[in-house]
Specification:
Elements lengths: L5 H6 L12 H17 L3 E4 L9 E7 L14 H15 L5 H6 L4 H9 L12 H14 L5 E11 L15 E9 L4 E8 L11 H18 L5 H4 L15 H16 L2 H11 L11 E8 L4 H12 L9 E5 H23 L3 H7 L12 H10 L2 H13 L13 E3 L6 E7 L2 E7 L7 E8 L1
Parallel strand pairs: 5-6, 6-7
Antiparallel strand pairs: 1-2, 3-4, 4-5, 8-9, 9-10, 10-11
Length: about 450
């Protein structure tokens, strides 16, 4: 993946964002979100201010809340928007920045709802009947070590009894909290931290306020040999050793989530109960659990932190930690969804031969679950941005009074009027192709560069 050109940055209405301050992945992701917004016909946010802290201009990755006809435009389906409303109405409004969630297309919280929101019922976050088989199989395939029998609930921005001393006392929560029953009908959970373009940097002030609790859980983890030999065999080791060789603010969120995971396990609670006389309700005591970081493959900042943290763990023991690449999660979800759809068709049809041939077709996919493909295209299809930039560089030095289709950049939109860009007298010009079968163009707007 390469750096983006300033020309493409401006054409995608991102002139109000400092390109040089973005990582390569973030810049490509931001460009992709701006295209998604443009395709949907949503107005972008623009900022013109004398405040030197912000660059004036268009913020193409943000929706203009003053021009939004629906405050749930950032979500892939109407139903996902209802799930967001439900979560915000359940005492989470002070824990979730609603403006960023609703209007910033880059926000990982919005991505989280877009990936998991369709699975659950609005009133109790149980898995909906139409998704039960799909969700079960997807999680079984991705997390075989948990011996999952059935996924029962998926909750957002959640941890049981959040912030109580008997856990980690610091208000830490998971972006997604997945509850399941294992093959022995015992309670288990998966706590997921979701990242998109964000790095892993977090506040490093928690430690000094919760040092005793952290060290208590850390000591139990040491006894379980979860950490590598250098940490586990040292009497003087403490949580600070987890970020040795890196910076505390990069590692802190990861180990806080990991310790929260451990505090929810019945085996750990038993050890802490003897020492502190804590009372743990049965529904918040789990036989097994796993902390997962879900992130895009090209987010190198996340990868760096994950590799560092994994180096502190004992590879020969169960560590209750796993990193999952988002592309692999979506690929598995897509495959399971299609397989279940075909099985359902075959069970309702006597013509097995025709259905067997239909498996090969790429268009065969349940329309009510099309949001899965929309998710992949919106968040993970970054190769399109690179192709756009390559096209742009080829025509950047050329001038056309009115281009034909071979002389200009075709902007990838879902709109009936495709946009085509050309450069004339050092200005980028947008043209509307009024007929997809021919190249009849009219000038739409200029972009000064």
């Amino acid at each position: 993946m390469d750096k983006l050109s300033e020309d493409l940055w401006k054409l995608l209405k991102l002139d109000g964002v400092y390109l040089e301050h973005q990582t390569i992945f973030t810049a490509n992701a931001m460009a992709r979100q701006s295209i998604w917004r443009e395709n949907k016909g949503y107005a972008n946010f623009d900022l013109y201010t004398d405040n030197s802290e912000y660059k004036p201009g268009n913020k193409g990755h943000k929706l203009d809340y003053n021009k939004c006809s629906d405050y749930n435009n950032n979500f892939l389906t109407t139903y996902i928007g209802k799930i967001v409303d439900s979560v915000l109405n359940q005492d989470n409004d002070e824990l979730i920045d609603e403006e960023l969630l609703r209007f910033n297309t880059m926000r990982s919280q919005a991505l989280t709802f877009n990936l998991f929101g369709e699975f659950v019922s609005q009133d109790n976050y149980k898995i909906k009947d139409e998704y039960q088989a799909i969700v079960n199989e997807t999680f079984k395939n991705l997390f075989p070590e948990l011996e999952i029998n059935e996924i029962t609930h998926i909750k957002f921005e959640y941890s049981p009894d959040r912030g109580e001393e008997k856990y980690t006392d610091d208000g830490t929560a998971f972006d997604v909290f997945v509850k399941f029953k294992n093959i022995d009908c015992e309670n288990g959970f998966i706590g997921i931290e979701v990242k998109y373009s964000e790095n892993m940097i977090d506040s490093d002030t928690y430690y000094k306020y919760h040092e005793k609790i952290y060290e208590n859980i850390f000591g139990i983890m040491k006894a379980k040999k979860i950490f590598n030999k250098d940490i586990s065999n040292s009497e003087d080791s403490n949580p600070k050793d987890l970020w040795e060789g890196n910076t505390q603010n990069k590692i802190e969120q990861t180990w806080r989530n990991h310790m929260l995971t451990m505090s929810l396990l019945a085996s750990v609670q038993g050890a802490r109960k003897d020492e502190k006389n804590y009372n743990y309700p049965e529904e918040n005591s789990f036989k097994d659990g796993l902390f997962v970081i879900l992130y895009p493959e090209k987010n190198e900042e996340c990868q760096e932190v994950i590799e560092h943290y994994q180096s502190k763990l004992n590879k020969s023991k169960k560590t209750y930690f796993k990193a999952v690449i988002m592309e692999e999660f979506v690929k598995e979800l897509e495959k399971v969804t299609l397989d279940n759809f075909i099985k359902d068709l075959e069970s309702k049809s006597s013509n097995q031969k025709i259905l067997g041939i239909s498996r090969i077709g790429t268009s065969l996919f349940p329309q009510d679950k099309k949001w899965i493909k929309d998710f992949k295209n919106r968040y993970l299809n970054l190769s399109e941005i690179q192709k756009l930039d390559e096209q742009l560089k080829k025509i950047a030095s050329k001038n056309y009074n009115q281009p034909d289709c071979k002389q200009a950049l075709i902007f990838p939109t879902d709109c009936k009027q495709a946009l085509i860009f050309s450069k004339s007298n050092n200005n980028w010009v947008a043209w509307c192709r009024e007929d997809h079968r021919a190249c009849i163009l009219r000038k739409c707007r200029n972009y000064n560069t």
